[in-house]
Q: What sequence folds into this?
């Protein structure tokens, strides 16, 4: 059985916890498939937004979720748009 929990916007988490802050040694960085060497933020920017890269490469324990941008869904939004409607 699958359970879904819907939260009002005021109940949405404001921060997420990065477990890397508590690891005894850092995780290995992602590898650039073209070079086989650790990927740099510049390599990753072609795939991911810079804010996501900063958070993923950080060892800071708590991160704030980014604010909702016009035309983009909230990062935790679980309800898909209705057919024929824009998100």
A:
């Amino acid at each position: 059985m699958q359970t879904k929990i819907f939260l009002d916007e005021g109940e949405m988490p404001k921060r997420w916890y990065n477990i890397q802050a508590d690891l005894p040694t850092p995780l290995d960085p992602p590898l650039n498939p073209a070079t086989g060497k650790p990927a740099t933020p510049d390599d990753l920017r072609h795939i991911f937004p810079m804010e996501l890269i900063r958070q993923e490469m950080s060892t800071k324990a708590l991160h704030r979720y980014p604010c909702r941008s016009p035309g983009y869904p909230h990062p935790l939004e679980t309800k898909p748009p209705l057919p024929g409607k824009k998100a």
